[in-house]
Write a structure and sequence with these properties.
By secondary structure, the chain is mainly alpha-helical. The protein has 3 helices and no strands. It has 2 domains: about 40 residues; about 50 residues, no CATH class. The mean pLDDT is about 85.
């Protein structure tokens, strides 16, 4: 076997292995990268969960105002508009 044929085989094998690793790990790397750049998805879920937990507690009368998780201005507005909100 001549030297150029060995180099061609080595380059082809290395390229094939790199391609397979890229296909296998590419989506994972892209997902992590996007989560680092756009973390708002999980923040939006946390905000929605907080909103619904708080609203359920307010309507059920189990909300503890000393918990301090909502502002006094919000509590005043909620008490003002509660009759219009329905159950």
């Amino acid at each position: 076997m001549n030297k150029s044929y060995k180099n061609l085989c080595l380059i082809s094998t290395t390229s094939l292995i790199s391609f397979i690793i890229g296909v296998a790990l590419g989506p994972l790397v892209v997902g992590v990268f996007l989560e680092l750049i756009f973390p708002r998805h999980s923040q939006e879920q946390e905000a929605k969960a907080f909103f619904y937990r708080t609203m359920n507690a307010l309507f059920e009368g189990t909300y503890n105002p000393e918990d301090g998780s909502v502002s006094p201005q919000f509590m005043n507005a909620f008490k003002k508009y509660e009759p219009r909100l329905g159950k």
